[in-house]
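Input record, target 12 of the design panel.
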């Protein structure tokens, strides 16, 4: 994925936060502290590769804020990971947890690597060594990792095992998104996509669109994109386009999502390439973003909708499933054009909400049914959507600004109530 040279996700995040702080009437010293991550750890992780050589991978864990609770957020394995990206992702977690009002701060981690080019044993060694190196700053009361791009339940299982071995006892609450057999929550694997589905239905309803008459295009068919596609298809939306790093499929009459998901589940590497497209046609990811659909769901990486394509977007609504898919320049262009954006910190919060349920179950040694998890998730997502919608209408601002008005206030209030010590 090509990043525009000037794009800095951390600066993007800061300018959104400053805008919200201005509207809230804060003076700089009220929110100066939340402009900086509390802690940044950079590690060099040596791995014995299958061919006997040693490679050293660079990794990061950033804790943006612990004012409202332990840091919380995923770990990304991707070749384009860098410190500014991890810092931005950590800060977005702080504001995401605040907007849905769960008792966490924000953190994020990453390793610069292409996990599709590593064998399972290399991935396991990399994960175990990385965990050992970040172990001093993580823990169920300190900082709780989870899956993100390029990581999954298996990786979380290795983190849980390595941390537990270091402590000398089983610590399931150190990480969420684990395999169910290791204390993972039922419903966590689908939770982010389920939250995206709930949010999409909420925004369609708010604009009096019926799901059955709405079309959607989804960029990214990993954990978040594929579950969003499945659940939206089941809700009657016409999923006209989906994509991944290997290309995009488009059929204005709607794709056969169950058949695509079946193909992905059988294919090693989970890529769309090679799928028998039938009536659908292959297009590029750039073309997918500009399709004439009702809803566009970017579910891949940051900086996909930027100043170079914002004036070509034809969707009426964008539901941000990825973190940071829209730059601030694009935001302004889209806003002027009347395109509604449901911001990432609201629409993709389902994952961390169910991670919170997983952690709550782990520390109490109890287990909830999937039905209970999904009901509680829906309640939280609906309430958060309504609060963001109401404040945005009340203040006549975008949904992104509305979400940040709620989140920044909660984080600043907590920070200031705790005070600066000594
Ligand atoms: N996994 C989770 O629970 C959560 C993930 N997110 C965010 O959702 C986004 C996707 O994450 P996951 O689905 O977990 O990752 P994943 O690793 O499961 O899937 C990523 C998908 O994006 C595709 N992709 C990568 N580069 C692309 C490109 N240039 N064009 C089109 N597709 C491309 C990949 O082929 C893959 O289908 C990320 O922004 C992540 O931070 C947000 C909240 C929670
Ligand atoms: O489940 C979690 O703790 C965090 C998921 C995540 O990384 C995100 O929401 O971006």
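The sequence produced for target 12 reads:
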């Amino acid at each position: 994925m090509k990043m525009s040279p000037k794009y800095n996700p951390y600066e993007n995040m800061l300018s959104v936060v400053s805008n919200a702080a201005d509207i809230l009437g804060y003076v700089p010293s009220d929110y100066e502290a939340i402009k900086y991550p509390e802690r940044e750890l950079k590690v060099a992780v040596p791995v014995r590769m299958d061919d006997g050589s040693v490679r050293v991978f660079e990794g990061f864990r950033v804790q943006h804020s612990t004012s409202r609770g332990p840091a919380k957020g995923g770990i990304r394995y991707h070749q384009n990971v860098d410190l500014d990206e991890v810092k931005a992702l950590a800060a977005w977690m702080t504001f995401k947890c605040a907007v849905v009002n769960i008792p966490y701060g924000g953190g994020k981690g990453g390793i610069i690597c292409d996990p599709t080019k590593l064998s399972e044993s290399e991935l396991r060694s990399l994960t175990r060594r990385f965990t050992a190196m970040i172990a001093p700053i993580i823990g169920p009361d300190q900082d709780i990792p989870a899956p993100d791009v390029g990581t999954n339940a298996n990786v979380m299982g290795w983190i849980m095992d390595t941390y537990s071995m270091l402590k000398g006892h089983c610590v399931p609450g150190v990480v969420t998104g684990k395999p169910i057999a290791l204390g993972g929550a039922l419903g966590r694997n689908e939770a982010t996509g389920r939250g995206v589905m709930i949010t999409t239905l909420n925004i369609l309803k708010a604009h009096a669109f019926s799901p059955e008459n709405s079309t959607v295009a989804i960029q990214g068919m990993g954990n978040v994109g594929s579950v969003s596609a499945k659940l939206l298809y089941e809700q009657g939306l016409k999923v006209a386009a989906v994509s991944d790093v290997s290309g995009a499929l488009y059929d204005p009459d709607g794709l056969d999502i169950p058949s695509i998901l079946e193909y992905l589940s059988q294919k090693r590497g989970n890529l769309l390439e090679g799928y028998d497209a039938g009536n659908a046609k292959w297009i590029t990811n750039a073309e997918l973003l500009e399709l004439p659909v009702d809803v566009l769901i970017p579910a891949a990486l940051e900086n996909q909708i930027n100043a170079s394509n914002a004036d070509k977007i034809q969707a009426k609504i964008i539901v941000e499933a990825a973190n940071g898919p829209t730059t601030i320049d694009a935001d302004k262009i889209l806003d002027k054009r009347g395109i509604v954006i449901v911001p990432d910190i609201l629409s993709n919060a389902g994952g961390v909400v169910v991670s919170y349920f997983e952690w709550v179950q782990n520390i109490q040694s109890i287990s909830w049914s999937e039905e209970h998890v999904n009901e509680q998730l829906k309640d939280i997502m609906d309430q958060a959507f309504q609060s963001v919608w109401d404040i945005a209408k009340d203040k006549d601002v975008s949904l992104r600004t509305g979400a940040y008005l709620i989140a920044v206030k909660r984080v600043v209030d907590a920070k200031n109530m705790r005070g600066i010590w000594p």
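Residues 302 and 325 are 4 Å apart (CA to CA).
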